[in-house]
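Subject: sequence -> structure tokens, single chain

Hey, anyone have a minute? Need the predicted structure for the following. Not urgent.
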Amino acid sequence: MTEMDKLKNGEEFQNRDEEISAAKLSARALAQKLNAVPVEDQEQLLTAAKELFGSVGDDLCLKPPIQCDFGFNIHIGNSVLINYNCVFLDAAPITIGDNCFIGPMTGMYTVSHPFDPVRRNEGFVSGKPIVLKENVWVGGGVTILSGVTIGKNVIVAAGSVVTKDVPDNVIVAGNPARVIRELHFD
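Reply:
Had a minute. Here:
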């Protein structure tokens, strides 16, 4: 099994592997291309996003710059806003559901390093998926960590660090983020 196969299977992989490094360089080049698109050329921006990301729904509003590790592990639903300066470390899939708003300077980090310093220094990493269900609003400067699923209709307050799953229909805030209010809809 190759290191890329391990990455795609959600297993620990060698981050310094030649194929892994080439995939990251390709993603950086595609992100650089996307980030260089003139602001008025939304068609070219969407084309560049479709080249970089694993899948893109309809009506994406993307405000570069963005950064990512691989790109192919990022899946974006319909009617999504991704604001300025977002970072997606996609060693595992990042799924952004329909009608999500992602605030500026948000980081989604699927990657994790071993606790053992020898393995960490040897370049081994692993990843766990991040999922944002429908209608999630992520405020500016939020960090979402590896393995987190955020439920439907959730609001994540600006500056929060989300370290564990969040149920539907709540507002979370803080470091670590915790439920501060339930949301009720008529």
